[in-house]
Amino acid sequence: MQLHETLGLKLPLIQAPMAGVQGSALALAVCNAGGMGSLPAALLSPEQLRKELAAMRAGTDRPYNVNFFCHRPPQPDARAEAAWRQVLAPYYAEFGIGAEEATRPGASRTPFSETAAEILEEFRPAVVSFHFGLPEASLMARVKAMGSMVLSSATTVEEARWLVDRGADAVIAQGFEAGGHRGMFLTEDLTTQLGTMALVPQIAAAAKVPVIATGGIADAAGARAALALGASMVQVGTAYLRCPEATTSGVYREALASDAVQHTAVTNLFTGRPARGIVNRVMRELGEHGAMRAGVPQFPLAAAAVAPLRARAESQGDGGFTSLWCGQNASGCLELSAAEITRRLMAEKNESQPMAD
Description:
Largest sheet: 8 strands, parallel
CATH superfamily of the largest domain: Aldolase class I
Structural class: alpha/beta
Order of helices and strands: HEHEHEHHHEHEHEEHEHEHEEHHH
Strand content: 5-15%
Radius of gyration: 19 Å
Strand order of the largest sheet: 1-9-8-6-5-4-3-2
Number of domains: 2
Number of helices: 14
Number of strands: 11
Low-confidence stretches: 350-357
């Protein structure tokens, strides 16, 4: 039986969880179109998580995925954060942002916890996925006891083996083309990061569990290529960013619809971790070695200092300080419903060879 059939899905497609630009509405639309919708939980409070899960349960009887981060929260470093705000000081002055606003705490990015596990136990989703590794063994045991399948992202073969050894039921092979945060957790060396079509067959050969391909997949042809190389399913995010069901901001949507979408880079400027987005003003002016920069506070502490700049700039229709996460292939990112995007991604499924494991 193919992986998507094991999961009770009509299509071998997962909508990538995209914290900050979607909630249950997008996930539900994909679920009800035959794919697997994903609910990103990293930015949700316990109350928000319960509310969104209740919306998922009320809106579909199809299986869905709930996604969490697994980073270790760093100890605050006042010196590093002060130095980072000093780098940003000319921009604060330009936008008239005072010291109080510049030092206001930003939105938190919370790793998977006992509280989250307790809430999940009320809903028992078909799939729970993780980014930046896996939670500690006791939390993994709780998720497994719910009957949920556990997925996690790997950016190297070594990471894939690590995940399988610690109980992952399937591995998401995240190619370097992918938008958003790199799932890398065993290394910080970007030179280890492979493209999707190079990474998928290597992980498929080494991991001995189903592999889900993600990164640069924007249409049915890309999905077929990934499946032909050994993937059991594909995961797609960027293509859904302009859907009406997404909460993507106006300046973000404008960037996605413009020629700017053709130039993306991996940067640590917005959160402290490498993530791929459309190159904008802050990346051009502060980036070193591409768009990465030394001395940026650890994830997620860097985000708070950028947040007031983003808010002030966006209020003026300016996306120069917004994290415009986007993969290298945005050709499928169209202003269409999530159901239509899902249909297009899988349009040739029945006309080609079976999309098998």
